[in-house]
Predict the structure.
Amino acid sequence: MKAIQVKNGIYWVGAIDWRLRNFHGYLTQRGSTYNAYLILDEKNVLIDTVKGYLTTELIERISDIIDPKKIDYVVSNHVEMDHSGAMPAIMKLLPNAKVITSQQGEKEHRLIYKEDWNFQVVKSGDSINIGKRNLNFVMTPMVHWPDNMVTYCPEEKMLFSNDAFGQHIASSERFDNEYPLETIVEEAKKYYANIVLPYSSQVIGVMEIVRKLDLEMICPSHGIIWKEHLNTILENYEKWSSNRTDKKAVIVYDTMWDSTEKIAQVIKEAFEDKGYHYCYYDLKDTHISDIMTQIMEAEYICVGSPTLNKGILPNVAAFLTYLQGLAPKDRKALLFGSYGWAKNNMTVLERYMEESKIEVVYKTNINFIPSKEQLNTIKQEVADII
Ligand code: FEO
């Protein structure tokens, strides 16, 4: 395995996960990478590692450049196992190396790996000199775990941002001028929607810090390295973290005997007539993580399910559980469905929305099959409230 030079004396030594299709519930159609970086200086530094099963790839790529034993510091920006899984093997190779991490990072390393490595805890404002270069550390808690931090090298104008600005893309290309930009941004958006969204208020703080840095390159821990399109990703992060929505609706449903689908269709038509952008998904066909990407810009979330037993159809329950965890703010909900003899569907849909703190602005629940008149009424009522 070959390392890839990122800048003079700085190498990408990570691993490509061509197999990854599910990242704790998030459909990763394009796979991913775990980006680790090797900096050669008077002190040699490894920034982050890779998922455990790809440890050999990491060690081979480091060995392509130097004997791994010559690494003096391992900077662990984030302890989640996609970035720290190779730590036990790496630390066996270099038992005297210092592990630079946040206070919470040390705690998590000890809880996960039960090892007494030579930790050096850093906080925002701390830096280390490694020779010609310095590495400055900034704590970015909850982007994505409480331990997260980023590492900035002012001499190289490079930010090693870990999860922030990442995308789940497996590719042989490493840089944003080598891969279709539209796809990188779409995957960055999906990554934000499915990983970063609940921590948008923390992202706003991070963006204030990042905007003050002199930057030539952002090196995330997943996917493509940003160097020619820095403003594209920074502007998008500013938009996504602000919770700004467009004139857009996302309509999602599952249906048993087509009644809920008929209602979904007239709700869709109401939005269409009012000039809204909209997305329309039967939850049997579309993965919830792809729907979340569309919800990023949606003012309205419309959710439909018939009653099934004492609740709702399981596809809808899975979507609502996922939505609740990702907690988009300042959205409005329309709830719809059908029932035979028990109206439990609406009770459950409303409960999810209440727990998700999403305001319900409209609801309708039809007994068995909606008539033409009922469908026309629903369409008019929806048109009147949007
Ligand atoms: Fe890529 Fe939070 O780990």
Observations:
- The chain is about 35% helix and 25% strand.
- Residues 246-385 form a domain with the Rossmann fold fold (CATH 3.40.50.360).
- Residues 78, 80, 82-83, 144-145, 163, 221-222 surround MU-OXO-diiron (CB under 6 Å).
